[in-house]
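User: Some background: our group keeps a shared notebook of sequences we're curious about, and every so often someone picks one and asks for a predicted structure to add to the entry. Today it's my turn. The entry only has the sequence so far, pasted here. Could you supply the structure so I can complete it?
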Amino acid sequence: EDPKLHDDRDECCEFHNACQSIATTASAMDVSSREEYWYPHIVAGTRPVCVYGNDYPVMYDDNDHYTELFLFHTEQDCCDAYPEGCNGLYWYPNKEGTECVHGPESMAEVDKEDLYESEEECCAKWCNDDSMNLGIEKKDPAFSESSTSSDFLLLEPNSEVTNLPWDFGEPPQWRIDDTVSITSDLLASSKWGMYWSSKDESFDPHSFTNIPSEEEGTASDLTLKFHVPDGYVATLRCFALINTHMPFEWFQLVVNGSTRHEYHQAIEDWIEIMTGFAPGDYTVMFRIQNTESAPVFDRQVDFGNYGTGRVWVDQCQITCH
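Assistant: Of course. Here's the predicted structure to add to the notebook entry:
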């Protein structure tokens, strides 16, 4: 009889001394013999932070798969694997000085005074024509009416657009979901609620959601392309319900290849996502990024709830002003 096969889960767990809670840390046992490593310290509702010590979850040390994913000999290795866990996250101008991007301080090629806690602070200086006066050339990325691809939405000056031409991918990676939507009451109480009431918009109760993929390392993208005309800026606002969770996958807002927002754990309620744009062409993607090496445990049975791998995006709007 194969000793690796068992009639039930409890028998298997007892025989192999396995199935420990992922939340169990070394503080609950004798840690004197455990080796110290750099590892991402993850607290529910926050981003990972690279720390050094031996107070990491027991399973990181007991399972070769998790040792490779979470334990590192140097701070740099941990930071390379979890860049958002080092030096904090900031908003800062890109190399061209045309827009603000979001990321760790280590990736920002700017002076300390150009690191900002919020996108609004950064954009107040960089996402407008004032950047022309700050020693950095503000570039309109090779745009002309004849050269911009027909799949780019051309924003009109002083316009507000809610019927946006989203691309679900081919084959589709996202779809319309008529069963999940932000409530009208929650929408009305948000910062954006004043827009809807002032426009007397009818509430459209559906959202976009990703089609989960179990293939390791793949991305599922919901894509929007648009052009902001010279002399104007634009703002994209959406609501999102996030039920993705590391170490399975994470959720990103990616603009022209740069990450502006990133979420590594599920969030219980709808959140508002907002980002700004200077003149130019933009490819915006709401992305679910699968990890390169999927965990071997069940995401909702073995160690608590690690989400469903789903995100819902709802009530998006672009203003050009």
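Suggested note for the entry: The chain has a mean pLDDT of 76. The chain is about 15% helix and 30% strand.
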